[in-house]
């Protein structure tokens, strides 16, 4: 499993591997929104957590089809099916690798972008605290969607259509948690719900993804 | 004699062919009479005027939109566990019907909401969760269409249906959490009102009887449509099998 993780990370960080793609997209969304809605600091501060969350979600969505597509095309996935490793473990490792190259760096630079959006300082902690498990669950749910559509040619649109409704609970609780302080609410309750979703997806979705992969590889 | 005998396509075709005209006729009679009763023979509401009568379409459609998904969940489970093709095809047949019911519920809701709430759309928990449900139906149908191999498609959509159910329920509670308190329950407390749970808002029997008849009619319509579409799917499957055999032979 470790070897697979290292291999995936190495492929992703190679030139043209697409590790920077999600990050660059995230950056662009956050820079473009103030240009679109105007530079009023009050307004920006109020919608900043929402923008950062939606940006993170879209950046994650953009890179999802890379999780399995290349391995499916060159036959690596068939080899992994025969490997002495449960297929759900493969799905889990692949989603972890995806999270390490998109979700984690995205979380780390989010305070910087928060400055751009005039996010008040007390919001940073909960923003990062919600993005950290939140992006992980986005990656795991996305890996499940990618496993469903791996056999479909040009399945990008289909993948987005399938994954978007699955992202709703994560987005709602994550954005709620990140913006709770601004609305003078307790951020702990949505945070716990977010953790529940993340842990639940980590526990069950790799199995569902493995079932989908098996159906696709038959 | 057990239910599982109808997993045999031939037996299913025979039974559904015999039942279908009766169910369709009953559905037509009850919907037409319920709507006539509801639209012309009930008084106008004291506060809502004539707009209250949209309830006779809105509520049955909304109920079916949710229950169609549960029927798909059940048939998907049967496919996953016992691998009966008729079951998978029934799930496939039900999806577009559920989608249309969701759209009807959303549109009639918007038409009612315009004069009553003063807006076509509000990000209210119920409305939002129905929009998400419509997205789930769309994704489910798109996945069926996109995968070439029918068995693979049945497997994949069944997995999607199982996972989707969990996430649909989660979203329902998530949006409740997200927009709690913005809308009071009373204006959307219709379902509680129908079941009589809400005493002050309790719907009067004048509206309740035609509504019950309309719900019955919609359920019968749903059964008829699912049977019809499943029969079509079975015939499509047969035709393609015959064509494939001809090509080989």
- Percent range of helical residues of chain A: over 70%
Category from helices, strands and their pairing of chain B: mainly alpha
Cα separation of the termini of chain B:
38 Å
Kindly state the number of beta strands of chain B.
0
Any idea what the shape of chain A is? elongated
Q: Quaternary arrangement of the chains shown? A: heterodimer
The span between the termini of chain A is 23 Å
The average pLDDT of chain A is: 87
Topology diagram in text:
The complex is a heterodimer of chains A (218) and B (249).
Chain A: H1 2-13, H2 19-37, H3 41-62, H4 69-73, H5 76-82, H6 87-116, H7 123-149, H8 156-179, H9 188-217
Helix pairs in contact in A: 1-6, 2-3, 2-6, 3-6, 3-7, 3-8, 6-7, 6-9, 7-8, 7-9, 8-9
Chain B: H1 9-40, H2 55-82, H3 85-117, H4 125-146, H5 150-178, H6 190-195, H7 205-248
Structure, explained:
The complex is a heterodimer of chains A (218) and B (249). With 218 residues, chain A is mainly α. Helices cover 81% and strands 0% of the residues of chain A. The radius of gyration of chain A is 18 Å and the shape is elongated. Chain B is mainly α. Chain B is 78% helix and 0% strand. Chain B has 7 helices and no strands. The model of chain B is unreliable at 181-201 (pLDDT under 50). Chains A and B meet through helix 7, helix 8 and helix 9 of A and helix 4 and helix 5 of B.
């Amino acid at each position: 499993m470790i070897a697979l993780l290292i291999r995936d990370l190495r492929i992703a960080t190679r030139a043209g591997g697409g590790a920077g793609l999600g990050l660059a997209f995230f950056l662009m969304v956050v820079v473009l929104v103030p240009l679109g809605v105007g530079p009023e600091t009050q307004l920006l501060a109020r919608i900043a957590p929402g923008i950062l969350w939606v940006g993170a979600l879209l950046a994650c969505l953009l890179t999802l089809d890379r999780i399995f597509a290349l391995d499916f095309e060159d036959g690596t996935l068939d080899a992994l099916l025969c490997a002495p490793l449960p297929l759900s473990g493969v799905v889990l490792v692949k989603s972890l690798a995806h999270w390490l190259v998109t979700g984690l760096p995205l979380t780390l630079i989010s305070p910087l972008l928060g400055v751009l959006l005039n996010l008040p300082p007390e919001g940073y902690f909960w923003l990062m605290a919600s993005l950290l498990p939140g992006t992980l669950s986005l990656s795991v749910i996305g890996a499940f969607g990618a496993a469903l559509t791996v056999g479909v040619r040009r399945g990008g649109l289909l993948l987005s259509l399938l994954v978007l409704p699955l992202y709703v609970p994560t987005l709602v609780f994550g954005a709620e948690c990140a913006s709770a302080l601004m609305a003078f609410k307790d951020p702990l309750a949505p945070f716990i719900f977010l953790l529940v979703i993340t842990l639940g997806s980590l526990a069950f979705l790799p199995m569902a993804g493995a079932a989908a992969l098996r159906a696709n590889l038959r | 004699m057990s239910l599982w005998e109808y997993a045999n396509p031939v037996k299913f075709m025979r039974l559904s062919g015999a039942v279908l005209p009766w169910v369709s006729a009953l559905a037509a009679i009850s919907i037409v009479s319920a709507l006539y009763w509801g639209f012309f023979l009930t008084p106008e509401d004291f506060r809502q005027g004539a707009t209250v009568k949209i309830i006779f379409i809105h509520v049955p459609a909304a109920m079916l939109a949710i229950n169609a998904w549960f029927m798909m969940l059940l048939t998907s489970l049967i496919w996953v566990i016992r691998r009966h093709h008729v079951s998978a095809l029934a799930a496939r047949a039900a999806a577009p019907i559920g989608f249309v019911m969701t759209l009807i519920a959303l549109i009639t809701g918007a038409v009612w909401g315009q004069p009553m709430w003063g807006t076509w759309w509000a990000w209210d928990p119920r409305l939002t969760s129905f929009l998400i449900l419509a997205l789930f139906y769309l994704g489910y149908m798109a996945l069926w269409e996109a995968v070439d191999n029918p068995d693979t498609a049945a497997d994949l959509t069944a997995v999607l249906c199982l996972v989707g159910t969990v996430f649909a329920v989660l979203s329902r509670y998530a949006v409740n959490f997200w927009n709690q308190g913005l809308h009071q329950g009373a204006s959307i407390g219709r379902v509680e009102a129908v079941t009589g749970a809400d005493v002050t808002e309790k719907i009067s029997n004048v509206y309740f009887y035609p509504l019950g008849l309309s719900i019955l009619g919609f359920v019968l319509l749903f059964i008829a449509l699912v049977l019809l579409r499943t029969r079509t799917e079975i015939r499509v499957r047969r035709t393609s099998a015959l064509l494939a055999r001809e090509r080989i032979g």
